């Protein structure tokens, strides 16, 4: 596919959309709502984001004008796939009281239309795999999630920039998109390089070829796309390096942790610390789990609002609670599952006993589940490096800094370790680049 | 159908400012409804009375706005007294034999205290609805001022008024079995509580932050995108996060959530450029008398005035 890459001219994006609509797909794409990029149904490309980019920092999200015809020049949207598949509120079953007093239970089944998602990123795909692992490939299959996951088409777009909170390179989940998509777009000013990644994608591609919507990509266009990806990767590593340098020259200062005191201007200069995680599972297990009494946890607890925004926006978090919503006359009731969080009170309650009454314990649960216990459950870290939890924390807590701080004080993180990660990251990205060109 | 209460709700009793009926109280309630009378009296519906103290009547509207459900409420319950809806029980308070008294408003006069005591004495259950009844409400702002001075400044003939210097929540005077927070409470919250009373089960007691509801509703955070000083992270849900849904910051009308960190939040507000007095006013508004909000508000107000104010219209803290 990539040795015969296709090119979709910008003006033909609507043709792709029309084809999908004709095939009964409901198309979901990035649009602006309430000062952020969200995913909503659309049928005209004019509805998509254009001439806009985002600026993200700890506890900070702004849209900014961007002088270009591009539709996808931004990083993680506020939310993307999670709410569509693991719904924020879902009726699991219903119970009705019959005339004779008997109760009849029935499982509710939602029927979703075929949906096509435009603009999915590497981190989104990686997170989806983790959610699938939890809801589909565990011992028990979640019927509701399974239903929502049927008949979806993913039109992925390679990131053309990296935000200040992005660190997918550190989790080996991006920025290159290697699988998990039906169609993959690399956006250039004049249009998109198009590759297929599934039978359905291939079928659609053939249709586009038949109607002469697609052209053959030139080698310059391919080069441009490759360069753009290298640049994104470079930005991600540069961000690390820059932060590390200023961090090292800043060692005498106490950790700049109370982000909340900062004005907006200060916050723009805020990422003074390296954003990288020691993703060696053994290392992090030892360091985090053996230092649960590290004083930094207390500092975190003093700042954290225990509000659950981080877990709600995290594309991999899967916790829920359940409640009953009865009809007033008692004739029927709905049993509803809703997003919960380890920052909420009910999450730490086991019969007669609250195991996580304090914020410190809740924060420890969040960090150690993501970075330690997830390995035991699912064989990898629960973080895909999207940075959403950092951006959408109302007081701007950067959880990578939190983990860093604890590991650093134990002499586990140093410039060398960062270099080491980087070498590893480079190897991964080289492999990916190879895959990108040779497939 | 016995709807059992999720265990987590029972666990929330430990919060100092939560007053949900105890299990024992719920059982006692079952006794009163299942006693022998049922065989004689065809009308075994729970007898309900709605009372108003110092308030704007907005919470009673949560009833009146229930639409068709109001007919169901009327069928399920025997509403004996509800002045705003035109129903008056003319017997002396103390002779009324009521199963559930629902109270709106705070205590502002000496008479209020007496009337409240009589209502309590003649009711099996007592539920407060709304910020006024539950934490004093907006009129409790006078608790932090020189009330007599305010009276003198506002009314032409202050001597014709007899009013206490403070506005206080119902629970400061009598035992309260269930508190429904909100300014105003919403219809679903109220009907949910009534439904659960019929089942002898504890109504859901949502102490999680508004942020949880906000994110479930798919709202975009106004703090993160616009630096708006939102009280959602310290306020309990049940409102459906309507303010952030409409692009404005939460003003805390449902009262403090569990495990609040008002200190960190107000420091963030300060970082947004809010002045100490503006931060104080965020907390000292609708639920000014609830402990976490009162303490946080005072802290910022005191920063402004190192000495207590006594001579002008400002709040004396
Ligand atoms: S923990 Fe944070 S950075 Fe990692 S996947 Fe979740 S939201 Fe993204
Ligand atoms: S325990 Fe916390 S971090 Fe882990 S999945 Fe649940 S909400 Fe997310
Ligand atoms: S984390 Fe990586 S894949 Fe995700 S938006 Fe950022 S650069 Fe793109
Ligand atoms: S880390 Fe931030 S978003 Fe998460 S619970 Fe704490 S304050 Fe809320
Ligand atoms: S808008 Fe307010 S309530 Fe909603 S998530 Fe942000 S801080 Fe929380």
Produce a short descriptive summary.
The complex is a heterodimer of chains A (about 450) and B (about 325). With about 450 residues, chain A is an alpha+beta fold. Chain A is built from 14 helices and 16 strands.
Structural class estimated from helices and strands of chain B: alpha/beta
Determine the structural class of chain A based on helices, strands and strand pairing.
alpha+beta
Please mark out the parts of chain A with pLDDT under 50 across 5 or more consecutive residues, or reply none.
249-274, 412-439
Q: Which radius of gyration of chain B do the C-alpha atoms yield?
A: 21 Å
Number of helices of chain A: 14
The pair of chains with the biggest contact is: A-B, 65 and 57 residues
Order of helices and strands of chain A: EHEEEEHEEEHHEEEHEHHHHHEEEEHHHH
Bound molecules: iron/sulfur cluster
Return residue spans of chain B where pLDDT drops below 50 for at least 5 consecutive residues: 1-42, 307-317
Total strand segments of chain B: 5
Q: Would you mind describing this structure in some detail?
A:
The complex is a heterodimer of chains A (439) and B (317). Chain A starts with 5 loop residues before the first strand and ends with a helix. In chain A, helix 6 (219-248) runs antiparallel to helix 14 (415-438), helix 8 (281-290) runs antiparallel to helix 11 (359-378) and helix 9 (295-303) crosses helix 11 (359-378). Chain A has helices at 13-22, 82-85, 122-135, 143-149, 199-210, 219-248, 264-268, 281-290, 295-303, 309-313, 359-378, 388-391, 399-408, 415-438, and strands spanning 6-9, 25-33, 36-41, 52-57, 60-65, 89-97, 103-107, 114-120, 152-157, 183-188, 191-196, 215-216, 320-326, 332-339, 349-350, 353-354. Chain A is built from 14 helices and 16 strands. In chain A, strand 2 and strand 3 form a beta hairpin. Chain A is of the alpha+beta class and 439 residues long. The model of chain B is unreliable at 1-42 and 307-317 (pLDDT under 50). Chain B has 317 residues and is an alpha/beta fold. Chain B has 15 helices and five strands. In chain B, helix 14 packs antiparallel against helix 15 (291-304). Chain B folds into two domains: 45-198, 3-Layer(aba) Sandwich (Rossmann fold); 210-301, no CATH class. In chain B, strands 2-1-3-4-5 form a five-stranded parallel β-sheet, with helices on both faces. Chain B is globular and about 60 Å long. At the A-B interface, strand 5, strand 6, helix 10, strand 13 and strand 14 of A face helix 1, helix 5, helix 9, helix 10 and helix 11 of B. Bound molecules: iron/sulfur cluster (SF4) (5 copies).
